[in-house]
Amino acid sequence: MVRRLLYLPTYHPHPLSLPIHQTQLTTPRKQLPLWALVFFGAWLLIRLGYGLLTFRDTPEAYAELMDEIKLAKADLRTKGVDVD
After folding, report:
1. Is residue 17 predicted with pLDDT exceeding 70?
2. d(CA 52, CA 42)
3. Count: domains in the chain
4. Does residue 45 fall inside a structural domain?
């Protein structure tokens, strides 16, 4: 009789089933915004990775950028700024 009373509060008819308040939190409808956010983040990471893999160097853009840097340095030197 004493053993029954000791185990009575911990007895649960289905040990693998969750209490009602936990099953209500894990319904698929409530998880949809979380999964949408996860998939959106994964899509952005995949898109960023693909963009980095397919990025092309363009020598023309490099030459144009270097010319603009030279013009900016010359302009700053005329204003009395030391750029080197």
Report:
1. no
2. 15
3. 1
4. yes
